[in-house]
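Question (not urgent): is this output format expected?
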Amino acid sequence: MDPQQIMIQATEHLKAGRLPEAEALFREVVAQQNNHPDALHLLGCTLSKMGRPEEAADSMRRAIQADASKSMYHVNLGAVLLSLGKKEEAISAFRAALALRPDDLHTYYLLGNTLCSVGKFDEAVPCFKWAVAAQPEYAPHHFNLGNCWLGKAMAIRPNADSPDALAERNQAFQQAVECFERALALRPGFREAGNNLAGALQAMGRLSDAMAVKAKIAKRAFLVLGPESCGNRFVTQCCVAAGCDGDAGHEQRFDKPDGLKRGGDIIVWRRSLPHGDEWPDLDYLLKQLRTYGYNDVRVFALLRTHYCAVRAQVHGSEKHVDTYDQAERNIAGALRRISSFVLENNLPARWITYESIVEENQRESFKRVLTEWGLDASKLPEIKNENAKYLKDPSLAASTTTRVSENALR
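Got this back:
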């Protein structure tokens, strides 16, 4: 068979992941044409994918001996050499690739990272600076350059005999800080850049600045907690509209195993107390949140005009209890549990009334709370006010709201 036809078949096998078939055909071409550069190079790529890096490197070297003019040959050889731990040889291969194609961003990235890994930070800086100049609005380039400066700073060990070393170290830290700040300005949710920025600031002794950065980039969770029929789902709906990842419907993704693992940087999670016949374990919820990196946990605690809350639990579309006495006990118990949970865990909390969500003349106070906590309160949904069908004596309703709230929080 013609070598060109064999190459086409072999390449199709390689793309489809049929590696043994690809290897056999590439070897067939090499057997016919000992110095066929593409066959030697792609055989090396196949061997690398098969977990045989030493053989892959030998085949790729033979390809370069046959034709040293293709930058990709050198790049792929460098990557295989890196997998073998031969970093200096990989650096030489990457440099050879850039000599042939000096505008290849990916090769600059590989060379820069490899130089950093062997402590050659001054040589790595130009690689990342080239990438920044080529794509100044791409946050990862600034992040990579910042990591290079940070590595250099951490590698300097100043002492009394080398006063200039301290100045050099601080200068490298400052360069790193500027790079990470730029990366965050371009991509505000770039947590890795934020973590490294905080680390650089802390190493410089700027502890308050480091803490401010950590607070800004922390994954945040809003817990919506309240007695049944007090607007918990409404607040969740508003938080979702304001930019949180979460579910306003009956089912919540975060209730499922590993649901939090796929949560966004800012989430909202809801618990009604009690839920059915069970009282949720709020401490366990908090532990789950922190396990998945949500270290900034804030609470929206719900209240509702007591008269309406009691009747909504008994007569609402989702009837929760049979008697007013049971509703009274549930509401009081819920408020006590929420208060204890917030105080014992020292969590930021805002008490929200159902009325501030559904009544237009009170809604500005709810919007202010959302805005203070960094949420977009400009596009909140309209929520139907269901108090009217329960409210018979407004003066009684207002007095009972205050009475029960105060009693529950004692």
